[in-house]
Design goal:
Distance between the termini: 102 Å
CATH topology: OB fold (Dihydrolipoamide Acetyltransferase, E2P)
CATH architecture: Beta Barrel
Helix content: 40-55%
Strand content: 15-25%
Number of strands: 8
Number of domains: 1
Radius of gyration: 27 Å
Largest sheet: 5 strands, mixed, barrel
Number of helices: 6
Amino acid sequence: MLLAEMKRTQQLQRLISFVAVILLFSAACSRAPTPTNQQARRSAYLSAAQSLTGRVVRIADGDTITVLDSANTQHRIRLEGIDAPESHQAFGAQSKQSLSQMVFDRDVTIVYQKTDPYGRLVGKITFDGKDINLEQVKLGMAWHYKEYQLEQTPEDRELYAKAENEARIARRGLWQDSNPIEPSAFRKEEREAR
């Protein structure tokens, strides 16, 4: 009887050890880094994105440029994630001038993944390691375009929203105006007035 009880105790100890190993292994696996939804979306965005490098040959306004690539093909680019004042709107000329000072006659890289209804590539412009779209928002020369923010990576959405808020608080650029009108609202008012 004593021998049978000892065997049962040994079996129970082995079972407890086995379960402990399984639990430790499960805990270690659950701590292993797995991509977050944010990382997965960014990865999907980057895998779908294309890039273009070229010289900026025209600034239409504070959020639209024309780039000439190495094959001498012109591409109209709409800056993703921002909406700058229209040319004939308050701060429109300043926004255009700001963008011009940063990129006109310079070689830039555009990362894009779509074309808008006007045939423009919609993308993020980088020059000298800077996100030019974000710089426009930081300077108070454009709004973070929240209507299309889901097309941005989560990181960019957060950066652009923060930059707009900081520009508002500091009253930089268009935020000097006591009641700045978003370009989308300005365009809608113009259409209705016609």
